Amino acid sequence: VGAAGAAGLVAGAAGGAGISAALSDDTAGAGGAPALSTVGSTAVMFHGKHQAGITTPLQSRGHLVAFDLAPGAGRKEAAALLRRWSATAKVLMAGKAPAEDTGIALDAGPSSLTVTFGFGRTFFDRTGLASRRPAELDPLPAFSADALDPRRSEGDLWVQIGADDALVAFHALRAVQKDAGDAARVRWQMNGFNRSAGATAKPMTARNLMGQVDGTGNPKPTDPDFDRRIFVPAGGAQEWMAGGSYAVVRRIRMLLDDWEKLPLDRQEKVIGRRKSDGAPLTGGSETTELALDKLGPDGKPVIPDNAHSRISAPEQNGGAAMLRRPFSFHDGIGPDGTPDAGLLFVCWQADPLRGFVPVQRKLDRGDALSAFIRHEASGLFAVPGGPAEGEYVGQRLLE
Ligand code: HEM
């Protein structure tokens, strides 16, 4: 698997786990004209060992939304809510309209829609389930460079929505919010995007708003240790999490005015990779390993000691690995003229203490990228395994 197939995280690349092309009837346009593309007709399966939206290829639109249970709502209301949400997600992911539909996505196919559900640390106290809270949900340590806004952080429940069409994604967001009814209230909500399917001539790794090829080093589903690193095994302390994963969510603002002033060669040293094609500064192509020991004519490492990709490399972190599956965000231009833009960093791992935490600890000591970013919000969520046929998400916890 080349980098373009890394963890299947190529926007718009059809195929991969749980993806099926929808009915051929749907691929014909109005009046029998040939379909414009298969972007709309691609559907992702709701049921499975793992929830959709983790190894699913990056979609071009994303919404992240956290809810808090309403005062007085407990385990019973939470179970009913997860049952409603699961039924809605299943219908929408199949490209069908739910009851009392808003009509926002009429005409469009499922467009690779995924709706993924998670539980935050506070959920377990609110529902009397504290004894079943996984130790993995212990609060993340504070990092020196954090500038976190608690109102946009954490939450009892978390929903990640992704789709290759903006109307399909927004439609799902409205349906999820409507389903919450009196049981839960939105705590925070963030919108993100990636490159549209078909924008590049061939499948390629995504770029972020700094212009870097981002996602190359991700573990790949074909790696022998992929499942062990990303998904919770059966037989653990909290059996209801078997097949699940932990999502760390960070809203990371990019200081783009400062970044864009940096000449190209310095930008490349910040990461340790070429901007044009993502290849290591030590040569080769995007998928070539970093030659971390290689010295330049000046006797210094070609990939600097503080380069982001050196510091975050699994071999520098006792094998700590995570699956990064972000969306970019842009929430307008601030009063000071700077864009409120950056990365909705979402990473997946079987245990945050063996994924995000050790890597962020090292980055926080001052990788070269730190001067150009600011962590503004944070969340940690337990995302249970995928529902079996007839089951709703989280049923093994809530019943
Ligand atoms: C690699 C950008 C934040 C962990 C990379 C690469 C880029 C990049 C361009 C090299 C290409 C690749 O392998 O994907 C960014 C930007 C960030 C950010 C722009 C913030 C806005 C983070 C954070 C973490 C992280 C917060 C985790 C704590 C990693 C890891 C790799 C990586 C694990 C792969 C290293 C390897 O396997 O060689 N990042 N990153 N990054 N980054 Fe980040």
Low-confidence stretches: 1-29
As a whole number of angstroms, the C-alpha radius of gyration is 21 Å
Mean pLDDT: 92
β-strand percent reads 15-25%
Rounded to the nearest angstrom, the distance between the terminal CA atoms is 40 Å
Pattern of helices and strands: EEEHEHEHEHEHHHEEEHEH
Account of the 3D structure:
This protein has helices at 75-93, 123-126, 166-180, 226-230, 256-261, 264-271, 308-312, 356-364, 395-398, and strands at residues 19-21, 42-44, 61-69, 114-120, 157-163, 184-193, 245-254, 323-324, 327-333, 339-349, 373-383. The protein has 399 residues and is an alpha+beta fold. The strands form two sheets. Strands 3, 4, 5, 6, 7, 8, 9, 10 and 11 form a nine-stranded antiparallel beta sheet that branches. A hairpin with a 5-residue loop joins strand 9 and strand 10 (339-349). The two termini are 40 Å apart. Bound molecules: protoporphyrin IX containing FE. It is an enzyme of class 1 (oxidoreductase). Its EC number is 1.11.1.-. It comes from Streptomyces litmocidini. Residues 205-386 form the Dyp-type peroxidase C-terminal domain.
Write the layout of secondary structure elements.
Blueprint: E1 19-21, E2 42-44, E3 61-69, H1 75-93, E4 114-120, H2 123-126, E5 157-163, H3 166-180, E6 184-193, H4 226-230, E7 245-254, H5 256-261, H6 264-271, H7 308-312, E8 323-324, E9 327-333, E10 339-349, H8 356-364, E11 373-383, H9 395-398
Antiparallel strand pairs: 1-2, 3-5, 3-6, 4-5, 4-11, 7-10, 7-11, 8-10, 9-10
Helix pairs in contact: 1-3
The chain binds protoporphyrin IX containing FE.
